[in-house]
Amino acid sequence: MTDAEAETLFARIRWPKTDGLPVCPDCGGCSSYDCRRASGAPRWRCKACGADFSLTSGTIFAFHKLPLRTYLAATVLFVNEVKGKNALALSRDLGVQYKTAFVLAHKIREAIASEIKDAKVGGAGHDVEVDGCYVGGHVRPENRKEDRKDRRLAENQSGKRQVVVAIRERPLEGTSLGRTITSVFKSEDASIDFIKTRVDRASTVHADESSAWNALHSRFDTKRINHSVEYSTEAACTNQAESFFSRLRRAEMGHHHHLSGIYLTRYSREMAWREDHRGDSNGMQFRTAVTLIARTKPSIDFCGYWQRSKAA
After folding, report:
1. Which of 35, 174, 281, 304 has CA atoms 20 to 30 A from the CA of 225?
2. Which pLDDT score, from 0 to 100, does residue 211 have?
3. Read out DSSP for 25-70?
């Protein structure tokens, strides 16, 4: 694909209603004229408000330095992986520095996570599973056995351990996949308000025997499963949430090896998106990701970070 073909593809995905004809991101005007830069980069000037804009203006790829073709290639490589794409492999595939690939991957994660922003799941007749998965906080054990400490005790832990709480909607009859919403907390107890906000009150909630979920009974029809006795029953089951956590674990161990605490929310939402779209074709996943990229505003965390003008 040439640079011109990449630009045409991105324009058609970003502006589907006009079949790729430019639309001003400031005022929404469809009347503009070409004022390309000397380098040949596409640029337009809106006749209504006079603002200059490019293909990526107002998107998460705004202010990009690499050719747009490289960014689309990165998106293809990113969505093509089943359990995640680490920044080192992405940098080698694209022929860019590790830091460039790291920032690019996080921008894509931010864009695809916007799909479930403020979304609610469940409803009357819907089953929703809730569970938590503790990540991070590993402490390397001492060499000699007599020097090792019981890391299960709170006083012997690093304090960096966090829990990814997943809300997994079961698919209804006739549909293939439900939706997955995740967030990160210090403990499962701290996630109750998040769950109440994101799950419809008429839903039937399934959870395990953890005491943290006792508070759900006051708001939802809640069914519990004791995993020390059995994995599932006809009445209660959290296997869908456990399936999501298995993919998150495989991504951590097999691809990333370490999920930094400050970025854990981004990684968990990436895996939720992959879980929800795993039945889609590669081409459909690419177009969905690029559509979300075109709709997402420039990143707050990864825009201007090199000047340290904004806190990352």
Report:
1. 174
2. 95
3. TTT----EEE---TT----EEETTT--EE-TTTTSTTTT--S-HHH
The 10 Å CB-count burial string (b at 16+, else e) for 117-153 is eeebbbeeebbbbbbbbebbeeeeeeeeeeeeeeeee
pLDDT at 243: 93
Q: Which residues contact 72 (CB under 8 A, 6 or more apart)?
A: 1, 6, 9, 10, 290
The CA-based angle 77-80-86, given to 5 degrees, is: 55
Residues of the chain with pLDDT under 50: 307-308, 310-312
Contact 221, 204 (CB under 8 A): yes
pLDDT at residue 306, as a whole number: 55
Q: Which residues of 64-90 are buried (b: 16+ CB within 10 A; e: fewer)?
A: beeebbbbbbbbebbbeeebbbbbeeb
How far is C-alpha 115 from the geometric centre of its chain's CA atoms?
A: 8
Pairing of strands 204-208, 221-225: parallel
Alpha-carbon gap, residue 181 to 260, rounded angstroms: 20
Query: Distance between CA 19 and CA 147 in Å, rounded?
Result: 68
* DSSP-derived secondary structure letter, 215: G
pLDDT at site 136: 84
Strands ordered across the beta sheet of 44-46: 32-34, 44-46, 52-53
Answering whether pTM is above 0.85, one says yes
Contact 166, 245 (CB under 8 A): yes
Tokens standing for 3? 């640079």
Given this model, what pLDDT does residue 137 score?
A: 79
| pLDDT value at residue 38 | 80
Question: What is the identity of the amino acid at 163?
Answer: V
